[in-house]
Amino acid sequence: MRDSVPRRATGVAFAAVLLGGGAVGCGDESVKEDSAMLAPSAAVAKAAEKAEDITSLHYRVSGTVPERGRLTAETSMKTKPAAMTMVMTVAGARKPGELDIRFVGKAIYLGGSGVDTAKLGGKSWFKAEPAVWGRGAADNESYGVLPRSMEVSPVVQSTFLAGSKDVRRVGTETVDGTKALHYRGTVTSRELRAAQSAAKGEDTWDARTERVDQFVNLGVDGALTMDLWVDGDDHAKQFRVRAKTYPTQNDTDGGTLDLTVTFLDINPSVTVKTPPAEDTTSLSADPQDG
After folding, report:
1. Is residue 242 classed as helix, strand or coil in its secondary structure?
2. Which of 42, 194, 196, 205 registers the highest number of CB atoms within 10 A of its CB?
3. Which residues form the domain of 215?
4. pLDDT reported for residue 199
5. What is the predicted pLDDT for the residue at 31?
6. For residue range 35-86, what is the model confidence (pLDDT) as tens digits?
């Protein structure tokens, strides 16, 4: 049961140890002529359909999130069984360094040079559970380690533009050594819900429901502006999302979300290792809740 763990106190405990607050595998080097001839709406819909075949991903993230400011991260994830490993650096943190974040076996592990070692008791990793990454707005649980915009799957995020009513092609560009068609548009939750309602078939309904749910997790206040770069295999190669976000408890004025995600390798072999139990200290229970 999700409520069996004192998440509020554990989240505070994790916040106390935070920073203060490649190879190309996604398509060939040319853009296929038939892809270039597709209408923009059809092209982004095709990329969204292709995303359903992605079961693992190596990707890079850079940009600004309201909760942390500027950050960079490199990540590998897989869906069956669900697991993720990320190395994240936050600019301007009180304690410079990297956070090594792992989701594996329904737990989150936190280590790296950006963690306050005084709280580790001589060990290298914190652990909290149950932890969930890559789902929708109500299901993720990272105990405050990740910004909410990075708790959801980039594979699903890459499909948001398929719900846009004003998508257009910007041109052909090179992304990480790969030529790709660049599309841009705006997306609202209302448009995504309309697309969901129009879905025909259970699989399409499920995919669009997940899209709506993960869009909600971004906390967008109004419209999301999205750029999408599609490679010669009709896969997303890169996307950028920009929006104002709703105020939160820690950010009463809201903030600006501006993240770029680059797909470095699609469906690679991904192994996420569980840190040794003897080198891990648990934050799953907090004496303040007792």
Report:
1. strand
2. 196
3. 2-21+24-289
4. 79
5. 65
6. 667 899 999 999 999 999 999 999 999 999 988 899 999 999 999 999 999 9
Tokens encoding 254: 């809201």
Q: What's the CA gap between 237 and 54, in Å, rounded?
A: 12
CA–CA distances in Å: residue 227 to residues 2, 29, 44, 53, 129: 35, 20, 11, 21, 35
> What does the pLDDT look like over 6-33, one tens digit per residue?
454 455 556 555 544 433 344 445 666 5
Q: For residues 194 and 201, is the Cβ–Cβ distance under 8 A?
A: no
Are 98 and 111 a contacting pair, CB within 8 Å? no
Q: What six digits make up the tokens of 56?
A: 């693992």
Residue 98 scores a pLDDT above 50: yes
Judge whether 67 and 15 are in contact, CB under 8 Å: no
**Contact by Cβ (8 Å): 14, 284:** no
96 sits in the region (left: phi over 0; alpha: psi -120 to 50; else beta) called: beta
Q: Could you tell me the CATH number of the domain that includes residue 236?
A: 2.50.20.20
Is there a contact between 61 and 70 (Cβ–Cβ < 8 Å)? Answer: no
In which residue are the tokens 């290298």 written?
124
Per-residue pLDDT, 247: 78
